[in-house]
Amino acid sequence: MGLVINDTAPDFEADTTQGKIKFHDWIGDSWAVLFSHPKDFTPVCTTELGYMARLAPEFERRNTKVIGLSVDAVGDHEKWADDIEETQSARPNYPIIGDADFNVSKLYGMLPASTSGDAKSRTPADNQTVRNVFVIGPDKKVKLILVYPMSTGRNFDEVLRVLDSLQLTAKHRVSTPVNWKQGEDVIISGAVSNDEAREVFGQWKEPKPYIRIVPQPN
């Protein structure tokens, strides 16, 4: 069975474009986004890696580290970075894991445990399930899993929106409604009794007893 939300993100050691890392140590006290790719020099992924580089200040503002993964060797990643910079006007400024031995892809349930052989002999279609986004908290627990097909580029603005929600709801006993964005009203958690809610939030709007709406806590 693959990873699910609230599982501990598997720890691993791997070579990256910024040197060898031990994943949990690399995360430290930060949040982390791990996003994966089936192969180097693939068109949709090229656009994604470039856009993620341009978003670096937004992730830094949220105390979030970004790391990529592709089922090829680190040396190939370095050559790919040249293409990314040339076509997307941004060079990856975060590490990219070399996963030519499929270790991390298998640990995270993106490839079957039986996967073996030479990564160079595999096509992007062979690795098409390596198209995930994992958001991992400072507690090393998986907070979000998104899986995309090869034909659809990922929406990393949505990842930022989810990070805002995850970080808010980790600090305050609230949930965020549909399409919520930073600064908008939130919903008091169902685990909070009305008596507790009065102490913490004061008053609230209540279209139904189970929908208690308050301004976003600071």
Q: How would you sum up this structure, described in words?
A:
The protein has helices at 23-27, 43-54, 56-61, 74-88, 103-107, 156-171, 194-201, and strands at 13-16, 19-22, 31-37, 64-70, 96-98, 132-136, 142-147, 174-175, 186-188, 205-208, 211-214. With 218 residues, the chain is an alpha+beta fold. The protein folds into two domains: 13-153, Glutaredoxin (3-Layer(aba) Sandwich); 172-214, 2-Layer Sandwich (Antioxidant, Horf6, Chain A, domain 2). The strands form three sheets. Strands 5-4-3-6-7 form a five-stranded mixed beta sheet. Helix 2 (43-54) packs across helix 4 (74-88). The longest helix is centred in the C-terminal third of the chain and has 16 residues, at 156-171. The protein is elongated, with a radius of gyration of 19 Å. The model has no long low-confidence stretch (mean pLDDT 97).
Short synopsis of the structure:
The chain has 218 residues and is of the alpha+beta class. It has seven helices and eleven strands. The mean pLDDT is 97.
